[in-house]
């Protein structure tokens, strides 16, 4: 007999990215509190949150300073908009703070409610840019297979997820996709470096095919997140940079996951030495305590879309929401004053990556990879042939369920298990994460009679 709460959830709650019929049959976990890097189910079961929620709780759970920032702002001014020749203190201060940590050539921020609508903003702003430049034919976006840029119509079109495109007749016109730098699955006989070059060169081939005069922008994540923490070969970004320098197209770097310290730099554009025209932000911006996103804009783009002196007819009721902005500002101030990003770079991420590599020796792991505070493993039945555990990525779900049983939140992206823990995780907690991941791999291997 399902509890009254479970029945209520089944009756009324349509949950995102879920088979809701299956949820109704199997029931659902109720998460009721959290502290540090741990979350708790209402029945008291404790989990180490290896995913920082959904890649977002960078500062960890339970920070009272963020609660106070929200409460103070809500008392003073819970809401006002930015449309009527008005601003609010948190919106302006947050924009200035983000500009201060962003790459030097980027000094303006447009606020949104999420990463998806930030990429919708990019979509319109980039097209507006080319209209104002007198090149209205430059309207096509180039993205990559297996990219994730959000779930709205434009953002899902920019993304390269087939299972999303097949629902809702996406992508919309004006978006084309090129190869991803996913060496493990697509590298064939090529070395990592050779494959990195080849994947990057698919961008140049596409530019030549569609015509430079028709291309608006290239959009990419520094490393693919939801695609399975796909970290590109060392040759990939330098070759992309060479191609971008050669053609007159804009470059949108989607840092919704990688921003705000996840690589050990404030932005992955520094980690990979990229020079984007716009950076998409959300998630770690507020450590997920309240929803907020935005686009950081280079001087080059701002000079045109602002410098021309006409209205940009775009914005959201909750653009720069003062309570969300106050929380994001406090979050960034804490990441700064506590030296959390430096700590990630100097100590925590090297330790996480070193221990994560131990998983590569496990019989069902085809590859262990990662950078900064993200990492993933490829689940296989056979290390040499790379044959998967089961058809239709069923092995990933089996492994995810064992992980939950073992008190560790890991996410499955198909046959890939991924982690993205809070940046404040300690070495002892990393040890616990690795021990639980090893047990989970053993349990999964045993389930498939492989050990
Ligand atoms: C999560 C994500 C988005 C979408 O952000 P939402 O806040 O869920 O709309 C966009 N891009 C990347 C890289 C993401 O990981």
UniProtKB/TrEMBL annotation:
Which GO terms of the molecular function aspect are on file? adenosylmethionine-8-amino-7-oxononanoate transaminase activity; pyridoxal phosphate binding
Task: State if Transferase is listed as a keyword.
Answer: yes
Under the heading SUPFAM superfamilies, the entry gives: PLP-dependent transferases
Obligatory cofactor(s): pyridoxal 5'-phosphate
Q: Which GO terms describe its cellular component?
A: cytosol
Task: Fetch the PROSITE patterns from UniProt.
Answer: AA_TRANSFER_CLASS_3
Enzyme class per UniProt: transferase
Family annotation (InterPro entries): Aminotrans_3, Aminotrans_3_PPA_site, PyrdxlP-dep_Trfase, PyrdxlP-dep_Trfase_major, PyrdxlP-dep_Trfase_small
User: Which keywords accompany this UniProt record?
Assistant: Aminotransferase, Pyridoxal phosphate, Transferase
**Keyword Transferase found:** yes
Q: What Pfam families does the database record attribute to this sequence?
A: Aminotran_3
EC number(s) reported in the record:
2.6.1.62
The regions listed as transmembrane in this protein's record are: none
Similarity field: Belongs to the class-III pyridoxal-phosphate-dependent aminotransferase family.
Per its record, how is this protein called by name?
Answer: Adenosylmethionine--8-amino-7-oxononanoate transaminase
């Amino acid at each position: 007999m399902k509890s009254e709460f479970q029945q209520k959830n089944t009756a009324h709650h349509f949950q995102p990215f879920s088979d809701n019929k299956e949820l109704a049959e199997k029931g659902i976990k109720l998460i009721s509190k959290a502290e540090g890097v741990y979350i708790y189910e209402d029945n008291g079961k404790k989990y180490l949150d290896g995913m920082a929620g959904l890649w977002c709780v960078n500062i960890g759970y339970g920070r009272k300073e963020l609660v106070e920032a929200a409460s103070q702002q809500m008392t003073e001014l819970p809401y006002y908009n930015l449309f009527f020749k008005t601003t609010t203190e948190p919106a302006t201060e947050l924009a200035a703070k983000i500009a201060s940590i962003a790459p030097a050539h980027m000094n303006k921020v447009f606020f949104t409610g999420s990463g998806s609508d930030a990429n919708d903003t990019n979509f319109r702003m980039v097209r507006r840019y080319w209209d104002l430049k007198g090149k209205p034919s430059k309207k096509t976006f180039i993205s990559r297979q297996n990219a994730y840029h959000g779930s709205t119509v434009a953002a899902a079109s920019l993304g390269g997820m087939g299972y999303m495109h097949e629902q809702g007749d996406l992508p919309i016109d004006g978006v084309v996709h090129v190869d991803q730098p996913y060496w493990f699955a697509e590298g064939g006989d090529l070395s990592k470096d050779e494959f990195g070059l080849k994947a990057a060169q698919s961008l140049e081939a596409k530019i030549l095919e569609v015509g430079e005069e028709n291309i608006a922008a290239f959009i990419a994540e520094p490393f693919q997140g939801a695609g399975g923490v796909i970290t590109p070969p060392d040759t990939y970004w330098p070759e992309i940079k060479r191609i971008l320098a050669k053609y007159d197209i804009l470059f949108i770097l989607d840092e919704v996951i990688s921003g705000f310290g996840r690589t050990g730099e404030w932005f992955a554009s520094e980690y990979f030495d990229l020079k984007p025209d716009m950076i998409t932000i959300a998630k770690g911006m507020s450590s997920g305590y309240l929803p907020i996103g935005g686009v950081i804009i280079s001087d080059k783009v701002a000079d045109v879309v602002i410098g021309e002196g006409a209205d940009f007819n775009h914005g959201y009721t909750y653009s720069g929401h003062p309570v969300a902005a106050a929380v994001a500002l406090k979050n960034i101030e804490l990441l700064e004053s506590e030296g959390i990003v430096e700590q990630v770079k100097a100590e925590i991420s090297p330790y996480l990556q070193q221990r994560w590599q131990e998983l590569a020796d496990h019989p069902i792991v085809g590859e262990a990879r990662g950078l900064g505070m993200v990492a993933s493993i490829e689940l296989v039945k056979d290390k040499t042939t790379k044959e998967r555990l089961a058809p239709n990525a069923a092995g990933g779900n089996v492994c995810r369920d064992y992980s939950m049983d073992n008190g560790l939140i890991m996410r499955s992206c198909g046959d890939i298990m991924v982690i993205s823990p809070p940046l404040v995780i300690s070495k002892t907690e990393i040890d616990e994460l690795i021990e639980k991941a090893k047990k989970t791999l053993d349990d999964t291997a045993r389930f498939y009679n492989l050990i």
